[in-house]
Amino acid sequence: SLHDALPILAAGGPIRKNKTFIFGNYEGRRDSTGDIYQGFIPDNTMKAGDFSGTGVAIRDPLNNNQPFPNAVIPQTRWDPLAVKLLQYFPSPNISRPGVNFIDTPSDLERRDQFTVRVDHEFSINSHLFGRYTFANDSLGNAAYRVGLGLIRPDQTQVPVIGYTRVISPTLISETRASLLKAYLARVTDGDAYSTN
């Protein structure tokens, strides 16, 4: 796992002495985590319907559960959906007992967020502030094959405004309003355009 947390940057100061102040910060993160996918997948002869090399009797449910001749399923009996799904099986790339496929993709994470806040003092009893936060994240979950992984490009914006008024030594009025705008999408790692 490679972790690269970016430093937090912050700065602030007066805009108008003893009246108006500004403060801003940035936080970022970069992360890459390796995955290991391994298992036994159909080889090219199995994908052609030939299971004779498995030593297992492949039975025909439409023929009194009798074995298919030579453990070969005729293509005329293949389900059209199964035919379309075959393209998503990668080819074996190793040969070990019980394992014929291994892949080591990486999950990727990128996060960027910044916040800016302005405070203004109208008087000793009257204060106003405004804050805006913007976050842009991209989290990638890898799969054993490019195009089957998932990328989550999320973006949020949060503006806030608040007003505080000291009415008396025992009574304070505080009013706040905020808004949340979020864009949450899920796309494949092979498609940078469509969202859902």
Give a short summary of the structure.
This protein is mostly beta strands and about 200 residues long. It contains two helices and 13 strands, in the order ββββαββαβββββββ. The strands form three sheets. Strands 1, 2, 3, 8, 9, 10, 11, 12 and 13 form a nine-stranded antiparallel beta sheet that branches. Strands 4-7 form a two-stranded antiparallel ribbon. Strands 5-6 form a two-stranded antiparallel ribbon.
Task: Kindly describe this structure.
- With 196 residues, this protein is mainly beta.
- Helices cover 5% and strands 53% of the residues.
- It is built from two helices and 13 strands.
- The mean pLDDT is 87.
What tags apply to this protein structure?
13 strands; 196 residues; 5% helix; two-stranded antiparallel ribbon; mainly beta
Stretches with pLDDT under 50, minimum 5 residues: none
Structural class: mainly beta
Gap between N and C termini: 30 Å
Helical content (DSSP H or I, runs of 4+): under 10%
Largest sheet: 9 strands, antiparallel
What is the averaged pLDDT score?
A: 87
Shape: elongated
Count of helices?
Answer: 2
> What is the C-alpha radius of gyration, as a whole number of Å?
30 Å
Number of strands: 13
Note the run of SSEs as H and E.
EEEEHEEHEEEEEEE
Strand content: over 45%
